[in-house]
Specification:
The protein is mainly α. It is 76% helix and 0% strand. The N and C termini lie far apart (69 Å).
Length: 217
């Protein structure tokens, strides 16, 4: 039985791929809900179409599975950015589009924000081990650099704010809505993810970023 399972795992059959996808989907929820230390591999295996032995066969260890989870969720936001055809838009509209797309992703992917928060608690010790994350996240800055350069060349944008700062501003606004949702609601009686607030908040992040880059030229 064990030999048959491992033989199947050595191939890229649809069944093996589905098994790994099932594991990652459940693992994202488990690690996001309970953190790295609190997540249980037994629970992940029990909720998927595989065994704990096969889970370790695919990912090596709990740390390996957690790293694969981080790579998965970061890849999703990078794919959102790649899908934006910024080269077809004026620089200010392209910048607004990136900001809004990031906001839309973060406010609809609570697990991503939780996992980022968890990894910050661990001082990014797992994330630093992933060449994939470090390489792919560089594309987020490259994309902004291209847009900002076009805006500066066109006389639209200031030249003293770099792409990392712009990325930080966009991420901070978008992450805050999820990371601070409950404390903010308790203090100010406002749910930042209430449906009625989403369109105004989408406009606001676009306005903030464009206004920052077009002021002080």
């Amino acid at each position: 039985m064990v030999e048959a399972e491992e033989a199947a795992a050595q191939t890229t059959t649809p069944r093996a791929i589905r098994s790994q996808e099932d594991i990652l989907e459940v693992a994202v929820a488990e690690f996001a809900a309970n953190g790295y230390a609190g997540a249980r591999v037994d629970e992940i295996a029990a909720r998927t179409r595989t065994t704990k032995r096969m889970l370790y066969y695919y990912f090596g260890s709990k740390a390996g599975l957690y790293l694969a989870v981080l790579e998965r969720v970061y890849a999703q936001i990078r794919q959102v950015e790649r899908d934006i055809r910024v080269d077809e838009l004026p620089a200010d509209e392209a910048l607004r589009t990136i900001a809004v797309a990031t906001y839309d992703h973060h406010t609809t992917h609570e697990a991503f924000i939780k996992l980022v928060s968890i990894e910050n608690i661990h001082q990014a010790q797992h994330l630093r081990r992933s060449e994939t994350i470090l390489r792919e996240n560089a594309t987020a800055i490259t994309l902004l650099e291209e847009v900002i350069e076009r805006g500066v060349d066109a006389g639209l944008f200031r030249s003293d704010v770099d792409a990392v700062d712009v990325h930080m501003m966009i991420s901070a606004y978008a992450c805050f809505h999820v990371a601070n949702r409950h404390t903010f609601a308790a203090i100010f009686d406002r749910d930042m993810l209430a449906p009625a607030l989403q369109e105004p908040h989408r406009r606001l992040i676009g306005d903030m970023i464009v206004a920052t880059m077009t002021s002080g030229r």
